[in-house]
Amino acid sequence: MSFGDVATKTGGGGAQQGDGGLGPLSDRLSLGVAARLSRYLQVLTQARKMGKETISSQELSEYTHVNSTQIRRDLSGFGKFGKRGVGYNVDSLVSQIRKILRTSGQHNIALFGAGHLGKAIASSDIFADHGFRVVAIFDPDPAKLGEKVGPALVRHPDDLKAMVEEEDIVVGVLAVPTAAAQALADKLVDAGVKIIFNYSEALLQVPPEVTVHTSSPAVDLLYALYFYLT
């Protein structure tokens, strides 16, 4: 999954009339559709950066490993985006998928951890490419306080609640040691953040209204290895 996958409670994947083909706000995508659309968006965003103006369903299939028929089925459920023999306009499809995933606009992130991983995340364009902006970085290490990492200054975690309100932060990213993750997740929950992206191996306990996505390179490698071996 990616950040676009956060609102994926099971529901109808097709479009409803009366909302520009995108369905009413109460309609939710199924987990599978949202996950695939997020993957298409990742590839399309990179294709646009490379200067591509159009892309075919077969090209999307090669980069995402999703069957081209499935790709056309997913996209046709929300309108007519492509032309036979021409493919999809990259700019238009990026815009439409962001609308479908309801991730258009800018979304502010609080990042915990100013170590090697945190610095890499803060300095990367990956989040910015999809409308996410790291507006606050937190680390309890006195030696790191006040240091500029990427676009923001490192602050003490005690400043979190005020920053969430001031910057309208919607996502918390944990790039911290496993032992520190739960206490920081509790701080995020207490501050009102409803989405947590967890880079640690911690099994976080949060209220049911809070969404946690844990990203583990080891798990991703095991997943890839399984399909390679079978």
TrEMBL record:
<feature type="binding site">
    <location>
        <begin position="113"/>
        <end position="118"/>
    </location>
    <ligand>
        <name>NAD(+)</name>
    </ligand>
</feature>
<dbReference type="GO" id="GO:0003677">
    <property type="term" value="F:DNA binding"/>
</dbReference>
<dbReference type="InterPro" id="IPR036388">
    <property type="entry name" value="WH-like_DNA-bd_sf"/>
</dbReference>
<dbReference type="InterPro" id="IPR009718">
    <property type="entry name" value="Rex_DNA-bd_C_dom"/>
</dbReference>
<dbReference type="InterPro" id="IPR036291">
    <property type="entry name" value="NAD(P)-bd_dom_sf"/>
</dbReference>
<comment type="subunit">
    <text>Homodimer.</text>
</comment>
<keyword id="KW-0804">Transcription</keyword>
<keyword id="KW-0238">DNA-binding</keyword>
<dbReference type="Pfam" id="PF02629">
    <property type="entry name" value="CoA_binding"/>
</dbReference>
<dbReference type="GO" id="GO:0003700">
    <property type="term" value="F:DNA-binding transcription factor activity"/>
</dbReference>
<dbReference type="InterPro" id="IPR022876">
    <property type="entry name" value="Tscrpt_rep_Rex"/>
</dbReference>
<comment type="similarity">
    <text>Belongs to the transcriptional regulatory Rex family.</text>
</comment>
<dbReference type="InterPro" id="IPR003781">
    <property type="entry name" value="CoA-bd"/>
</dbReference>
<keyword id="KW-0678">Repressor</keyword>
<keyword id="KW-0520">NAD</keyword>
<feature type="domain" description="CoA-binding">
    <location>
        <begin position="105"/>
        <end position="203"/>
    </location>
</feature>
<feature type="region of interest" description="Disordered">
    <location>
        <begin position="1"/>
        <end position="23"/>
    </location>
</feature>
<dbReference type="InterPro" id="IPR036390">
    <property type="entry name" value="WH_DNA-bd_sf"/>
</dbReference>
<comment type="function">
    <text>Modulates transcription in response to changes in cellular NADH/NAD(+) redox state.</text>
</comment>
<feature type="DNA-binding region" description="H-T-H motif">
    <location>
        <begin position="39"/>
        <end position="78"/>
    </location>
</feature>
<dbReference type="GO" id="GO:0005737">
    <property type="term" value="C:cytoplasm"/>
</dbReference>
<keyword id="KW-0963">Cytoplasm</keyword>
<feature type="compositionally biased region" description="Gly residues">
    <location>
        <begin position="10"/>
        <end position="23"/>
    </location>
</feature>
<dbReference type="Pfam" id="PF06971">
    <property type="entry name" value="Put_DNA-bind_N"/>
</dbReference>
<dbReference type="GO" id="GO:0051775">
    <property type="term" value="P:response to redox state"/>
</dbReference>
<dbReference type="GO" id="GO:0045892">
    <property type="term" value="P:negative regulation of DNA-templated transcription"/>
</dbReference>
<keyword id="KW-0805">Transcription regulation</keyword>
<protein>
    <recommendedName>
        <fullName>Redox-sensing transcriptional repressor Rex</fullName>
    </recommendedName>
</protein>
